[in-house]
Structure prediction request, 489 residues.
Amino acid sequence: MKIKFCGAAQSVTGSRHVVEACGKNILLDCGMVQGGGRDNARKQNTNFLFEPKEIDFVIISHAHIDHVGMLPRLVKFGFRGQVFCTAATRELAEVMLLDSSHIQKQDAEFVGKKSGKKIEPLFDDIDVRKTMKLFSTFEYFQKFRITEGVWATFYDAGHVLGSSIVALDAKEEGEQKRLVYTGDLGRKYLPILNDPYQVDHADFLIIESTYAGHLHDSFSNVREELEYIVNDVVKRGGKIIIPGFSLERTQELVYVLHELYNAKKIPAIPIFVDSPLSSKISKIFDKYVDYYDNETYRAFLSKKQSPFNFKEIKYIESVEESKKLNHFEGSCIIISASGMCEAGRIQHHLKSHMTDPKNLILIVGFMAQGTRGRQIVEGARKIRIFGRLYPLRAEVVVMNAFSAHADKIELLEYVKNINDLEIIFIVHCEENECMIMRDNLHNILKFKGKAEVVDLGEEFDLSNEGLAARYGTRRKQYIEMMGKLKEKV
Ligand SMILES: [Zn+2]
Prediction:
């Protein structure tokens, strides 16, 4: 087995890792690089660091664009193999990719106009349609054969609906090895989702480490906080504006608000979900009730209720309806995209409502550097929207508890419970966070194997021979220490 890291190496987007096993190339995720400047992102998105035609299979861990977004481009440039994921991921990926295709088109037109050159979008709807024909789906725990000698199993990652931790079992020249890829690792106690499944054995682990140096607030405080916020804003006759990521965060918010309505803890003010993508995704959530956790079953399904449909909620589709919200009288909650306030209908809602101190902007997601959302979080007094500066007088509240990524302790706990680990590959984290993860593994977990902060394009030969060549005689010591690698956190 060999592995080459072609994305999310000391960065948090563009996950792409090529595993070579039994003579086949298996690509783990085919994500889009986002942020870091348009030119840089485009450069990385148009250069895969491998030949699309040489990839035999793709496995998609979940439907976030930074994990699936470049799949249509892979197809556009010659990939014709199968794509494996869960059924929910396939369906979510389709709407996410079509939405992304639309953004690619707009983006290419914008850059083309500015530069005076014709710019091709990264992919289009036709590429997405071709891509969707290549999917085969499998359920959690269903071990399936990829090729002679290589099997895969999905386990629930508890990150977004359908998200998977991927285990690859490969037998080559008498060596049986297990590689586990966390995808994005979720958290315990998130609404709707099951807790991340604990894999208990792996030789090699590729682990995301987005929040290796952070501790999140507990989700248990979210209900009380939201209850307080809604009651407070209604009392002063204001509106609540929430920039919401369309996949998962919006559904989680709706879920908690629905619970609060049911318990009569908040007044029955309308909730508008003003994002056609969020509406489509919520419909997919309604289809995949088998993926929900027991708590969701008890709270809603057992009463024949959908967490995402109730009297007070309205999903807004048309632009006309969306515009009408600007003149809505009285208190309401508006959840709209994009999550970082950079595009989409949220811009209109901010423009119309942020100048009034009665209103409240609720931040529930990560706001990357350089985004409008980040300016709001950092206390800017004026925000530029559609070329004009508007005063920000509304109250701003930031809730960190909604994060769908494991934090420092959760990451270390996860590793601690995996036996036989020889090498841990640290991915999906900013450089500093990656180093923190490596230090924590060695210093807190006392992990005696190798913890590698991988470089973009770096390759590892994971055969016994390859490992001996890379790590020399020290490898012997690692093998001896296997089984007693880990101590308590
Ligand atoms: Zn994700």
About this structure: Residues 186 and 405 are 5 Å apart (CA to CA). The first strand starts at residue 2 and ends at 5.
